[in-house]
Structure formats: C-alpha cells, structure tokens
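Q: Got a minute? One more chain.
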Amino acid sequence: MTNAPKIVLPHGGYRKLIVYRKSDVIYQGTIIFCRRFLPTHGDRTVDQMTQAARSCKQNIAEGSAASGTSKETEIKLTNVARATLDELIEDYLDWLKTHNSIEWPADDKRRVAARDYAREHADWVDWQEFFETRPAETVANLMLTLCHQTRYLLDKMIATQEEDFKKHGGVRERMHAARSAIRGEEWFKSVYSRLEAASTPGDLVALADEIKYKVEQTVWSIKRKKGWA
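A: Always. Here it is, folded:
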C-alpha cells in the first residue's frame, strides 16, 4: 500500500460549524430587520445589508467546500466572509446613529446578557422570536453581538487555515509529493525484486554492490551538475 499523501483533503461539513450556524442566524435576522424597520422600496440599504449577510454565509460554505483541493481558495473566501461581515456591522451602527439609538456599552447588562446567550445559542430557532418581536434598537444590538462573535470565530478560522496551508500546501504541492512517493516506492520495489532474484549468497552480495555502485555514480553526477563537487 502506498504511503503517498492525499491530494484531496477532507472538506465540507460546514453546516455543523458554529461559525456557519451563526452566520445563518445573521442572514435570517437581517432579512427580518429590513422587513420590519426599513422601507420596502427606495432604500438601497436593504439590498446592501441583505447581500452582505448572505455573502458572509455563502462564502463560509463555499470556502469549506473548496478546502479539499485549494487551501488558497478557502482562505480567500473566508476573508471575503469576514470583510462582508464588517460591512454589515457598519450598516447596523449607521442605522443606530441615524435613528437616535445607541450601541449598548460593553458593560451594559443587556449586552452582557446578549453575549452570554449568543455563546450558547447558534441556531435560528433560538433567535427567531427575538428578531420578530423586539424593538428595533434591541434587534440591532442583538445582531451586533452576533456579528462580533462571528467575526472573532472567522479570525480564528483564518488563522487555522493559514497553518493548514503551511502544513499541507496547495493541491500542486500535494500532487507532486504524491507522485514522488509513488516513484520512490516503485524504485524500492524494483531494487528489492533484483535482490530477491539472487540464487546464492554471493550473487546477493554482488547485486548489492552493483546497485550501491550505480547509486554512488548517480550521486556524483548530480553533485557535479549542481556544482556541489
């Protein structure tokens, strides 16, 4: 059995990720926020906010799907998800400012409670009632809490992805490593087969000396070619 490294790494499974589940809550919640508190027509903010929320969720999913063959693409898409989340955070902060509302201070008991709840609840069923029934300022602040936590998770995810890339490389590097491993294994089998064909101990020693001599000559040739000799 070959010891060649895998070319396509394990990937997918994004629906189980907490960061993806939170991004889905952000998207669904943004749809409801826009429907409840923004004009139905004539306000580009609605399109901008819903697109940013959707882009965050979709890029997490696409990055996870791409990770098997391209760590570069995975990192790029996760960074896009984070960037669009930053846009959405700015949209909610702008809404609060333009509607004489405030972002809850870090030590506000409402914000502390929201942070604690968000750490333990990452599914839409846990949040739907809040977004459908609470006043606009509360919904916006709940959304900001979710966005900040999701951004933190994305930062950790990007750091992990970068380490994975350093460890495994891209698909080209893994393909080269796999081919090299197979060639090495085939060479070993060829050498073993020649030695196995020896009919006497003397033949075995002679074959081993011949192989050793050829290896030494090859090493010398490579050294001269590279200017090492």
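A: The CA atoms of residues 126 and 209 lie 73 Å apart.
Q: Perfect, thanks.
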